[in-house]
Amino acid sequence: MSTLFFSKAKYTITIIIHLIILVHRSLALSGPVDPTQGFVSLPFNRSYYHIQKPYDVPEDQRYSFSNGIHKCWVYSTDKPHSLSSRTEPRTEIAIQLFETTCVEYRTHLHLICSDRFEHHFPPYGYGYSSGVWQFEGYGYVPTGTSGVCIMQVFGASPHATTLMLRVYNGSLMYYRSQVLIEEIYDEWFRLNVIHDVDGSKVKVYIDGYPVLETDGRGGTSHAFKCGVYAQNDDSFYMESRWRHIKVLRKSD
Ligand SMILES: *[C@@H]1O[C@H](CO)[C@@H](O)[C@H](O)[C@H]1NC(C)=O
Ligand SMILES: *[C@@H]1O[C@H](CO)[C@@H](O)[C@H](O)[C@H]1NC(C)=O
Q: Which tens digit of pLDDT belongs to each residue from 139-174?
């Protein structure tokens, strides 16, 4: 009787151990993925983006690029990025054509829309209205930066944005509604954002792990931006850093 009991128990334990190994293996299989598979990386250099920063300070007071690292910072007391704008302060790498800003500058700041300034208008940008697009970048947010959007998919309808990734008290959030990563401060993370315009879907990956899949928010004109754009409850100083920024498009 007791021999039978022990052999049964041994059998059960063996089965449990095998199950644990199986579950462990299947978890290991769902490890990080490469979200850029099937996408083509597009040319990207200074001609493809411009810096939006408080209109009354020189660019090098809010943005630097050295050793491959873009650093964007802004203060809660800063001015908007243009005289006519009523938005919160921002320093953003805008991977879009300069057209609208240029018109704004021409209308309101014609004095500083000089030849020297016009010379710096990027001739390229990645505004898009269809297809499947992807932003990739390695981001870094130092402790203390809070109440700020660090990456956005610009353009929606009736809203202004399709996606905002914000930092509140050290957490990375989808707008202010969902925590994606509890603790984001002081560590480089790989960010991939996929925007399927036709399918109206947005996917976000951190370090190769899917953290958000949500619906688009309409609109016909989109672009990627990253940096710091003050939101509610913003800290006095806001900063984010970026490297290896890529814009990709799904190949046919
Ligand atoms: C960026 O790349 C384009 C080609 O895609 C080239 O024409 C342009 O001169 C480059 N600009 C800079 C600043 O390197
Ligand atoms: C962040 O923390 C501060 C202080 O603890 C708190 O007042 C604020 O509500 C928090 N913000 C969010 C969005 O949780």
A: 999 999 999 999 999 999 999 999 999 999 999 999
Task: Give the chain's domain count.
Answer: 2
Ligand minimally distant from the alpha carbon of residue 125: 1
182, 142 contact by CB (below 8 A):
no
94 and 6 part of one domain: no
> Whose CA is closest to atom 10 on ligand 2?
169
Q: Verify that 232 and 151 share a domain, yes or no.
A: yes
Q: Name, in order, each residue with C-beta under 8 angstroms of 168's C-beta and a sequence gap of 6 or more.
A: 146, 147, 176, 233
210: region left, alpha or beta (phi > 0 left; psi from -120 to 50 alpha): beta
| Domain extent for 74 | 39-250
99: tokens are 């057209």
Per-residue pLDDT of 12-30, as tens digits, reads 777 777 776 666 655 555 7
Could you tell me the distance, in angstroms and rounded to a whole number, from the CA of residue 231 to the centre of ligand 2?
13
